[in-house]
Amino acid sequence: MSFSDDVPRVAVIILNWNGWEDTIECLESLYQINYPNYQVILIDNASTDDSIQEIRKYCQGTLKPQSKFYTYQTKNKPIKITEYTEKEVKNLEIFESHNFKPDKNLILIKNFDNHGFAGGNNIGMQFALEKIQVDYVLLLNNDTLADKNFITELINASEKEPKIGIAGSKLLNAYDTEIIDSTGHIIKWGRIVDRGHGEIDKNQYDHKKDVVGAMAAAALYKSHMLKEVGLLDESFITLGEDAELSMRSHKFGWKAKFVPESIVYHKRGKSITKRDVINRMTVLSTKNTTENVLRYGTSKEKVFYSFVLIKEGMFVVFGSLLKRNTMKTWDYTKLILKSYKKIICSLFKS
């Protein structure tokens, strides 16, 4: 792979927290892509396991990840690591990285604290925009595996229209590649959903389409757009950060494009098995979805979303009566009622 200034420069941001096994598998897929002008920035969100040491071993070529999605390569090892703390990156001048080989270079930023999904990624995005001065920022989950052409296809689509601010890959389930994970953010019943999620892939979405946004598991953002609309909202603890950015960008007049030729495999849900974790995520999802609808929803969208809340409330109550769920029924019901009240009140204010 040769470095080229003839194509837009892309910073690929990957966030790691106690997940080095997935991370090095993701990195290996990334270092085998065919795009000639990209910089990998790995953010470690204050891991408490051996993530840093294991990632160093991978870059040295002494730890070899195995995957059904690729054959491990030795020719691009060792990979040079440039390490910074989160304090150091803020004090850096412009990062000089001329004449480097993209597939043999890694910037590792070590956070002192776990800043969550939004905060951790924002540190990498800010560094990429201010210090490296890239044309695009690509967020890539550490539990993904990338096809060799995925960045090339995203860039080709994005460069065709100056107002395309977001381009999203076709995300497929890594455990069953016939199942769709996401083909872009759309608005359904008043709120952002992942189009096609859970459906069998029958090529029904294999055409480029204007959408509202993209899941940040594999989303390309134009730097000009990010500088105008801002980065991820750190008030969202987890879940819905990418949906908020999609809606915000959409309200600013930026377009988003789903690019089916760009394929990424996602292990979503692998670590979410404990009932208490699922319950917590359900609560956060409801809170954050409600906040997004309040901020950006039209009156019609708010009405539709109010019916979603009614349906959810009925599901929780009847599920509890039949003992088919373990949610703290009254606490979650109060949250739904509170969310419903906020939505209805906002309708009278608009």
TrEMBL record:
Domain spans labelled Glycosyltransferase 2-like: 12-76
Entry keyword Membrane: no
Gene3D superfamilies recorded: Spore Coat Polysaccharide Biosynthesis Protein SpsA, Chain A (3.90.550.10)
Domain of life: Archaea
Pfam families in UniProt: Glyco_tranf_2_3 (PF13641), Glycos_transf_2 (PF00535)
Keyword line: Glycosyltransferase, Transferase
SUPFAM superfamilies linked: Nucleotide-diphospho-sugar transferases
GO molecular function, one term: glycosyltransferase activity
Similarity comment: Belongs to the glycosyltransferase 2 family.
Protein name: Glycosyl transferase family 2
Naturally occurring in which organism (per UniProt): Methanobacterium paludis (strain DSM 25820 / JCM 18151 / SWAN1)
Lineage, broadest ranks: Archaea, Methanobacteriati, Methanobacteriota, Methanomada group, Methanobacteria
